[in-house]
Amino acid sequence: MRYLSILPIAALLAGCAAPSLYQWGGYDQALYAGYKDPAKMETLRVQLEKHIATMETSKQKVAPGLYAELGTLYLQSGASDKAIALYSQERAAWPESKGLMTAMIQNLERRQQAKVEAAK
């Protein structure tokens, strides 16, 4: 009899769980798969692009770090201009990341400038 009174309370408490604050779009599983098999990093990039586009079109806030992660994936593939743009988006969306993103952007811009000067 005692268990019968506990069961509805447990069910009620389980139904009151807070919803997730951000939508990650399977980021953690895709990142793990990419680390386990580096050939799957391209899949992670495509998945992040789709997820970010979905979040932006539905006017939801993109989870912290996703712009920066996508920027890093572009940087690793040699597209530093896209990386800078995505780092700027991360900095604008998440003011807490301003220091790190500003340093990353400045570093990339210096590297780009050095390449231009070396090519002359």
TrEMBL record:
<protein>
    <recommendedName>
        <fullName>Lipoprotein</fullName>
    </recommendedName>
</protein>
<dbReference type="Pfam" id="PF16068">
    <property type="entry name" value="DUF4810"/>
</dbReference>
<keyword id="KW-0614">Plasmid</keyword>
<dbReference type="InterPro" id="IPR014508">
    <property type="entry name" value="UCP020555_TPR-like"/>
</dbReference>
<keyword id="KW-0732">Signal</keyword>
<feature type="signal peptide">
    <location>
        <begin position="1"/>
        <end position="22"/>
    </location>
</feature>
